[in-house]
Specification:
2 copies of one chain form a homodimer. In chain A, strands 1-3-2-4-6-5-10-11-9-7-8 form an 11-stranded mixed β-sheet, sandwiched between helices. Chain A is globular. Chain A is about 40% helix and about 15% strand. Chain A has 3 domains: about 5-235 and about 360-430, Alpha-Beta Complex (Amidase signature (AS) enzymes), CATH 3.90.1300.10; about 240-280 and about 345-350, no CATH class; about 285-340, no CATH class. The first copy, chain A, has 14 helices and 11 strands. In chain A, a hairpin with a 5-residue loop joins strand 10 and strand 11 (about 400-410). Chain A is an alpha/beta fold. Chain A starts with a helix and ends in a 9-residue tail after the last helix. The interface of A and B includes residues 85, 93, 97 and 304 of A.
């Protein structure tokens, strides 16, 4: 398995590993695997080497920026990175060089991250399949839209990567590829310098190989944490967990239901307080309403370009945008009202049962074939309500594909979510194999 | 002479001229003259025609957006225009397509302007000469950095254009090309979506063929005017004018001194109250300090790119950036202190003599040859102090080159500046010939 950020950080801090050597390991993996995986739009070997060298020299002078110092990170190709193109899967934008960093990218640089390159996104962060392959089975989808970020982390081409989620674009690819993903609270991470999909549901967030690494990245890129990590107890107390059924069982495949029952029983066994939680009635409309909000807000941004350059839009995003363009304003207004109401109802619902986090499967099934990017039904509710989620793999299906669970917390309760996720990850004692490449 | 915006607007409103026909007149001029003038980076004939058609149809339905409805406008190539590249004179940015409009561009669209294309800027709005020619003499400079905007308006390829000024980049090209320019109060017009040169002195502003047209454009693009134009009296009262001597005579060539004396005596004759005004002692340092602020702030933005792509920087901007990079912070801090002090001293100085506006030449001399973009010494003080300026041509030199005067007002007193400029323009009864093309 590739190194975790926190293991690499410990080695770097102790002088056992240099940022240069760590980067070279990643570049070697890219050299060896990229032809099969196609996770990258651009790899800036020279730039990354220069930065790793500079950060290595800083260490020699006793300067240590923190746990991302010298850590190779990939950036989804919808984030502006100074002097690199931001194509976002568009052919016409292929040479559109960013004049400055997105806020998130600037923060990663300040934290000492080594930017390796831009990772493949589905076109405009929507759901036309990208060329990226799932490292666990090249004929399966890596999920979307953060396809390249998930596949690159899963294969150790970088230790963490930026993703973004409007439907299920962090949780789903991370889960399909057997790595961890965090979709933070809406507004926690800046969208400045990021190509939008649907402004009221766009969430930049990290993809990494474990929960701890997600927290490290989120503290660096988010607002209002102070410093989350020192608050993470070495041995967090067992959390109170509300297990979601309803929608989250109806649409789940057998392999997922089975793994959820196993997870449930291990967590209880280890001392977690797991209760079943009934969703508010208005939850049943979430998938349909989410589609309306996404279609309209995506069309708000893309309509003019779609008219000018229809050839630069794949069939799925085109269909979405056409829905948005044709949507009566009253339908959108009703969806927005529902979105606000559901946010409030979810808060009341979680408070009523006094749980720290909600638990549900991360995806409806293991990675399907490459005809789609998979079903975001278990993710879009959290993009819609803006609640923070953390997902991490818990095992493999019978056909050797990763399966993951997802924890959901109240708005801005990422610290609580991370305590719970760290506890669960440890309780479940997951040891993922490496993808069979 | 090309049509003014206000004459065209009157014809459009009265149904005597359609936006389509007006645009075609401009496109014909581009077809006829562009090869010699080289004012444009990009002309979007199809896009402009579609927009002119739409605006013509709006008029048929009785919709009138105001005095920019259907007016062809050029945009300096440092402003982002949706779906057009923003090259800013960089080769590497030649295909960097803007994802959205700069604020100023959005406001122009909302006001009904027809965007004709992107006008040539010197590289990064600095002072390496651009390929644009001066329409009055093809061997002379059109000035910089808003070279294309000034030359395009002077030749009727568009009726108004966006420029920007950090040193003398609006007033100087406008004056050299025989048209009018307004550098608004610092902060009056948004720099959002504009490639920066020096953030504390960057001023987007309009170039047009007369003072009235500048006001029309400024109301559309600026903040906090309410609606300036209805407040402009038909016959404004004679203004109280403080004539600047000192620096503004020491560096002026004979032709400029002669024209200033003529202007002075006509304005007095017509009833203006003209008094000589002595500049604060600290004014003598303005040219040198301006250079420091510009060099440091330009380097703040460009340093990393200059290091990565030295081949994408001309000799003059390179020299400026190297000065900025080498500048001790204390020199910059002293210049910033001086800049703040001079702003305050200029306010006191103008209030002490109870004048509406200051009067000085717009440039030190008529357009020099194409080896430079000309001397910004009479403009950079106003970029440095942020005071609003209006310049307009008052005649021709013996060798047939335009000469202009410049009025300067107190911060945010654009309305007063426009009243005075309209009065002066009328009093001087300037009738500029067309450039001899």
């Amino acid at each position: 398995m590739a190194k975790t950020i926190h293991a690499a950080a410990a080695d770097i801090r102790a002088g056992r590993l240099s940022p240069i050597d760590l980067l070279e390991t990643c570049l070697e993996r890219i050299d060896r695997l990229e032809e099969r995986i196609r996770a990258w739009v651009l790899v800036d070997r020279d730039g990354a080497r220069a930065e790793a060298k500079r950060l290595t020299e800083e260490l020699k002078r006793g300067q240590y920026r923190g746990p991302l110092h010298g850590i190779p990170i990939g950036i989804k190709d919808i984030f502006d990175v100074f002097d690199w193109p931001t194509a976002a899967g568009s052919r016409l934008w292929a040479n559109s060089i960013a004049r400055q960093d997105a806020t998130v990218v600037r923060k990663l640089r300040e934290a000492g991250a080594v930017l390796v390159g831009k990772t493949v996104t589905t076109q405009y962060a929507s759901f036309d399949p990208s060329p990226t392959r799932n490292p666990w089975n090249l004929e399966r989808t890596p999920g979307g839209s953060s396809s390249g970020s998930a596949a690159a982390v899963a294969t150790g081409m970088c230790l963490g990567a930026m993703g973004s989620q409007t439907g299920g674009s962090i949780t789903r690819p991370a889960s399909y590829c057997g790595v961890a993903g965090c979709k933070p609270t809406y507004g926690r991470v800046s969208c400045d310098g990021v190509v939008p999909l649907a402004h009221s549901m766009d969430h930049p967030g990290p993809i990494a190989s474990c929960v701890h690494d997600l927290a490290t990245m989120l503290v660096a890129i988010g607002k209002g944490f102070g410093n989350l990590l020192p608050d993470l107890p070495g041995t967090p107390p067992p959390p109170a967990i509300g297990r979601l059924r309803g929608l989250f069982e109806d649409r789940a495949h057998a392999a997922v239901l089975r793994v959820m029952d196993e997870v449930d029983s291990v967590l209880r066994e280890r001392g977690a307080d797991v209760v079943d939680l009934t969703l508010p009635a208005s939850f049943s409309e979430v998938v349909e309403r989410h589609r309306i909000v996404m279609a309209v807000e995506a069309a708000q941004f893309h309509e003019l370009r779609l008219r000018r350059h229809p050839e630069d839009y794949g069939p799925n995003i085109t269909k979405l945008l056409e829905e948005g363009i044709a949507c009566p304003a009253t339908d959108y207004a009703r969806a927005k009202e529902h979105q606000e109401r559901l946010k409030e109802e979810m808060r009341i619902c979680i408070e009523a049962v006094c749980v720290d986090v909600l638990l549900c499967p991360a995806t409806t099934m293991p990675a399907p074939d490459r005809a789609t990017t998979g079903d975001p039904a278990f993710n879009s509710p959290w993009s819609y309500t803006g609640l923070p989620t953390i997902s991490f793999p818990v095992g493999l299906s019978d056909d050797g594909l990763p399966l993951a669970i997802q924890l959901v917390a109240k708005e801005y309760e990422e610290p609580e979510a991370f305590w719970a996720a760290l506890w669960c990850e440890k309780a479940l004692a997951v040891r993922m194999a490496e993808p069979p490449l």
